[in-house]
């Protein structure tokens, strides 16, 4: 193999494009570990050789394989001490390329299909090997988006359509989360001063998006503190008060957790701590964004990262949000308090209509929580998106969607009986929905 040139000719910008690494990361590795070893111009600017660029790629490739940066440097030094050039026979297996060329995109589509097929038969070894192949042709970000994120979403769609079991969906999500967590653990220490606190509000267990965002932001050199899933409001508030982050980022995927997110956003606004948010529910129901006093990060994780960077670089005032009336909040509280009696009357009504079944308790709980959340967000009509989702779920499981309408009618009757005039906000919406469907 021909020797790699050590003539310093590349500036930092060129090295960034070639390696995909951020400038802060490159500087920290140089300062902390002595690798690479660029020369300096008379004006003090760094100049890198092809050998320096290859060194950075080599270190980055070891990270992708699971080593920490400190262990990768140790391995480099061990090889050098033994008289071996680490780049001779130990060339990087990972190249960072953005965006992926068409041929690469086709290959990633094929690998995603292979990953999904492995998950369907619970073959974690095959699934992991498939992801490793993807890392051999694309960047960390590309693999996470094209294989893991799209794969998890596809498996979720299959479950919703009745084409995959909940066990298969959980298996795929678990594998994806495990790989993301491994990548997070191997990112370099933060190189920037800003701190971002990320997490999911109470009741939100879908943590894959927020974990992936943690990885993406850490690879930008940010200090990211991830609280994970299902964080009670008081604990989230205490943590934010103690560390005073530059930005809080929360994610909600469901109507119920969007309501919990709104409660958190109000407290952060009062504490003058900037808060941003995202999640599938805000893409499905764009109008919900008007109820959240915070910064919407966009419909995709790619957009989220850039939006976070913008907010950190140029903090702005909280956007205006639409007021949720005290009346709606009071109705929601009264509905929750009356729910045991409503459910008893509902079940009696379902028996009379021959609609009771073994899954009805689950449906009742889902509907009750969703309806209360919709009220807490200012309009029971927000629940209509969830009703459409339930209808698709029933269809995917060969359960007649025609059973939904008499169920809702029984629900309306139970609320009228137990709440009277105080429940008219709910029963009026139900009556209009039934008339229109």
UniProtKB/TrEMBL annotation:
PROSITE patterns: B12_BINDING, HTH_MERR_2. Residues 15-78 form the HTH merR-type domain. One of its GO terms (molecular function) is metal ion binding. The keyword Protein biosynthesis does not apply. Pfam families: B12-binding, B12-binding_2, MerR_1. InterPro entries: Cbl-bd_cap, Cobalamin-bd, Cobalamin-bd_sf, DNA-bd_dom_put_sf, MerR-type_HTH_dom, MerR_fam, Meth_synthase_dom. It comes from Longilinea arvoryzae. Residues 193-322 form the B12-binding domain. This is Predicted cobalamin binding protein. Keywords: DNA-binding, Transcription, Transcription regulation.
């Amino acid at each position: 193999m021909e020797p790699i040139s050590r003539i310093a000719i590349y500036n930092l910008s060129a090295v960034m494009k070639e390696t995909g690494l951020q400038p802060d990361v490159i500087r920290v590795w140089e300062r902390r570990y002595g690798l690479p070893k660029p020369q300096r111009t008379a004006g003090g600017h760094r100049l890198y050789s092809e050998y320096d660029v290859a060194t950075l790629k080599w270190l980055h490739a070891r990270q992708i394989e699971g080593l920490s940066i400190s262990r990768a440097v140790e391995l480099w030094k061990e090889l050098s001490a033994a008289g071996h050039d680490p780049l001779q026979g130990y060339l990087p297996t990972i190249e960072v390329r953005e965006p992926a060329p068409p041929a690469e995109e086709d290959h990633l589509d094929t690998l995603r299909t292979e990953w999904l097929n492995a998950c369907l038969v619970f073959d974690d070894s095959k699934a992991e090997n498939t992801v490793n192949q993807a890392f051999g042709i694309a960047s960390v970000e590309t693999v996470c988006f094209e294989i893991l994120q799209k794969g998890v979403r596809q498996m979720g769609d299959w479950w919703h359509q009745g084409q995959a079991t909940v066990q298969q969906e959980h298996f795929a999500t678990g594998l994806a989360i495990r790989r993301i967590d491994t990548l997070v653990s191997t990112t370099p220490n933060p190189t920037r001063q800003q701190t971002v606190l990320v997490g999911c509000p109470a009741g939100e267990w879908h943590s894959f998006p927020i974990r992936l965002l943690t990885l993406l932001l850490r690879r930008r050199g940010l200090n990211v503190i991830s609280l994970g899933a299902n964080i009670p409001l008081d604990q989230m508030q205490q943590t934010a008060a103690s560390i005073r982050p530059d930005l809080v980022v929360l994610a909600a995927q469901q109507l119920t957790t969007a309501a919990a997110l709104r409660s958190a956003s109000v407290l952060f606004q009062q504490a003058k701590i900037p808060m941003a948010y995202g999640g599938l529910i805000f893409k499905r129901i764009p109008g919900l964004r008007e109820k959240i006093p915070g910064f919407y990060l966009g419909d995709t994780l790619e957009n989220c990262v850039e939006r976070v960077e913008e907010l950190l670089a140029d903090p702005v005032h909280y956007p205006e949000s639409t007021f949720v009336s005290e009346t709606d909040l009071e109705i929601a509280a009264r509905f929750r308090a009356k729910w045991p009696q409503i459910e008893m009357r509902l079940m009696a009504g379902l028996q009379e209509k021959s609609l009771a079944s073994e899954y009805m308790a689950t449906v009742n709980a889902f509907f009750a929580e969703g309806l209360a959340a919709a009220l807490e967000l200012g309009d029971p009509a927000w629940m209509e998106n969830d009703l459409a989702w339930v209808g698709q779920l029933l269809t995917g499981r060969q359960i007649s969607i025609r059973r939904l309408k008499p169920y809702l009618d029984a629900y309306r009757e139970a609320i009228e009986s137990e709440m009277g005039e105080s429940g008219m906000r709910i029963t009026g919406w139900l009556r209009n929905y039934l008339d229109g469907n």
